[in-house]
From TrEMBL:
Lineage start: Eukaryota, Metazoa, Chordata, Craniata, Vertebrata
Protein's UniProt name: Lymphocyte activation gene 3 protein
Domain of life: Eukaryota
InterPro entries in the record: Ig-like_dom, Ig-like_dom_sf, Ig-like_fold
Function field: May function as a ligand for MHC class II (MHC-II) on antigen-presenting cells (APC), promoting APC activation/maturation and driving Th1 immune response. Lymphocyte activation gene 3 protein: Inhibitory receptor on antigen activated T-cells. Delivers inhibitory signals upon binding to ligands, such as FGL1. FGL1 constitutes a major ligand of LAG3 and is responsible for LAG3 T-cell inhibitory function. Following TCR engagement, LAG3 associates with CD3-TCR in the immunological synapse and directly inhibits T-cell activation. May inhibit antigen-specific T-cell activation in synergy with PDCD1/PD-1, possibly by acting as a coreceptor for PDCD1/PD-1.
Amino acid sequence: MRPRVSVQDSALRNGIFSLRIDPVRSEDAGLYEARVTYDMEVQSCQVELGVITVTISPPGPVIENEPLLLSCNSSHWARLVETHWFHNGHLVPTSRTFCSLHGALSIPQPAMSDAGSWRCQLRYSDNEIISATYNLQILGFDGPANPMVYAAAGSAAD
């Protein structure tokens, strides 16, 4: 896993041992065990790392009015019961504009106003609630509905 993994050496003298993974990938999910030996004494602990991902389809830049699908997936073992999506902190109701499908959100015609923070919240059959955020950027024209530019003959126009 190198170079994404580091051990926090500075805290070892105080009995604190930790592992840092940056960035975390989906395949990093699983059970981790740490063992430290000091003067013939062995200390150990186990930690399970769960990973949640938010992906966008099609991949690449999102173009205004071109359909997109935001998907939210987790390594959690229980059955997914409920998915909620939030845009800039506000709950997104299912409508013609936003269609929620088992962990995914379809936006048939994204607008410039759909850019910003999207958070998915997954609730599982064991009542575990997991969430992740995706910052959506949309390429498009953010100006007047009927743009018209006037330029004097012989000058430049942008």
